[in-house]
Fold this protein.
Amino acid sequence: MGTKGKVAIVGAGMTRFMRRAQETPKELAFEAVRAALDSAQMTLGDIDCVIHGTAPDAFDGIHMKGEYLLDGSGGWQKPYMRGYVGGGTGVFAPIQGWYHIASGMFETALVVCEEKMSSCQPHPQGAFLTIFDNMTERPLKPNLLWIFALEMNRYMHTYGIKLEDIARVSVKNKNNALHHPAAQLGKEITLNEVLNSEVLAWPVHREMVSPTSDGACAVILASQKRAKKITPKPVWITGVGWNLDTSYWTNRDLAYPQYVENAARMAYKMAGIREPKKEIHIAEPYDPFAYKELHHLEGLLLADKGQAPQLTADGVTARTGNLPVCPSGGLLGVGNPIAAAGLMKVCELFWQLRGEAGARQVPGKPHTGVAQAWGDLMQVGTVITVKN
Amino acid sequence: MHLKGTAISKQDLDSGKVLFTRGDPHAHYTWDTGIGIGRYLEGLRKGKIFGTHCKKCNRTVIPPRAFCELCFSSNIEWRHLKDTGVINTFSICYVSWDAQRVQTPYLPAVIEIDGASKGHGILHLLDEVDPKLIRIGMKVKAVWKRPEERTGAITDIQYFKPY
Ligand SMILES: [Zn+2]
């Protein structure tokens, strides 16, 4: 793959993640952008183009949400676009920012992702109902939990994985989130508390599910030339990848996210990463449900098929382990304002690789990281690799 | 790091401390069922499950489709499949879409239909089975509505049950 220029992350900012925010979507986006600009000591005048990411319009009940959010995103009278791949949007948006700059067209790009799920009544899950096939599935009145429960059950069955193997992910991430200032659901929780929580849709328990959230995140990207003037500690984007599997999800292998592997291989090839298990120091895979972290670690080739639970049980994925996974606290702990949650993972890598993650700093001066998001109808993988 | 954002509670809203406005968008649709799904639903009305077969890919799929998305060809054959299958995966769902507990759990499953290629299933519901006894790999059979009640819809199959 030919790419013109190197691209760095030079600033990052976010709001708190909350069950319900008083701020409007525009105001949330503004606060995240303002924080990102301030972190890089830049003004909006220094920004050449803006990429916005947000999930379904149905959450807000506002059609053309990209246009609505323009002002809070700092897109006024600039080249501006909205990209969308469902839950995968949060990592797709910085990928789009990357090629705006790598193409040579722009020197700087602002990437902002925002989600306000709480407006949708009586429950934001209602906005998800229309993702199912309108002719062959919706008449069966499915809800979103079904597809996660079905996929999790198939994953457990295929590899003989036990519930406690999956519950450990919730314990790790919710405890990690205790140290994240944005976190909505950070808590000290034990394995038994997760296992004894209410069964929502077997085998999914309440404490294995991320919450619905309001929040926004932003990062600023710059070309090599500009990055060095902006900060002495740029974090370089070394690889990007994205891939979609068939929309006929009942025809897919639900035990393994092949499309995540495809996206990861695309990013690793670009980054020159041949042995991801050895070369990646921190991973922030998408964890809207506890089993998804494991599923995605396997798709990212950081664990062999069916072996991610063992890594978790062995403490390898703990913040102090050999491969810290979701040191941020992930979606399970920090929260899940869909598109913003994916970009939060990229922000986390930025802070971790700069040694600015405070109480949740991974020891040992990590140099490389991978972030990944997932979504649409369980069919998209978006992957970004970074190094300092 | 100080982060912005003002969390509000239900009490803040109920007490009028925080203002909000309401909206209730209305949108209604009629969806043409198209070539592939149209014929599938027509088959269901007659009590038959159809799939499509791509010779080039040697793959029989369900739901059927007007073109093979792998080789990107419309050179497909219609196949009458059985109304039996195997549970690929299932759930026992105790909540409705708005997170309310339900009395009787929903029993969604992906059912690989006999006659389709391995791993090719559809989403449907299970019934006439003790939820505790449902297993992946269990053989199930369609329970149809009576012919005069069928409308050409996926719900012409009421559910699948073990046999
Ligand atoms: Zn074909």
